[in-house]
Amino acid sequence: MAMGLAVLVLLGVVGYLLLQSRTAKAGAETTAAQAPKTPELYLPLDPAFVVNFQDQDSTRYLQVGVTVMTHDPNAVQAMKDSDPVIRNALVMLFSSQTYTGLSDLNGKKKLQTEALDAVRKIVADKTGKPDVDALYFTSFVMQ
């Protein structure tokens, strides 16, 4: 009889703990869902980038407007403080492209990813974390 009572109490305690852990988990998920999301912050890198590159026998030009997006105000400040470094990295990246490589959508997407990676690295070096969420080409002209 004492053994049966002990098992019953033990089952009650285990049931109570399971119920509490589910309630706590549901409460945490609700709190996370209700937490206000920080607004998106956009930083245009003005003026637009203008570079030239060789394409077989002729010189080609590329003009690219770039805007970066983050949710962290510290990242915006880091990008402003590092503007010459970012612009240099992007000029080097853009001028190393080929006309053929940028002629299709996949080439432009690849360049966009490489540019985002370059900016993230610079921001990470400055702040310790790469808090740049996206990089957008706001204009893209090849001639």
TrEMBL record:
Record's bilayer topology term: Single-pass membrane protein
Localization terms from the record: Cell inner membrane; Cell membrane
Stated family: Belongs to the FliL family.
Residues in the signal sequence: none
Keywords: Cell inner membrane, Cell membrane, Cell projection, Chemotaxis, Cilium, Flagellar rotation, Flagellum, Membrane, Transmembrane, Transmembrane helix
Protein role: Controls the rotational direction of flagella during chemotaxis.
InterPro entries to which the protein is assigned, alphabetical: FliL (IPR005503)
Highest taxon of source: Bacteria
Protein name: Flagellar protein FliL
Species, as recorded: Dyella acidiphila
Regions crossing the membrane: none
Taxonomic path: Bacteria, Pseudomonadati, Pseudomonadota, Gammaproteobacteria, Lysobacterales
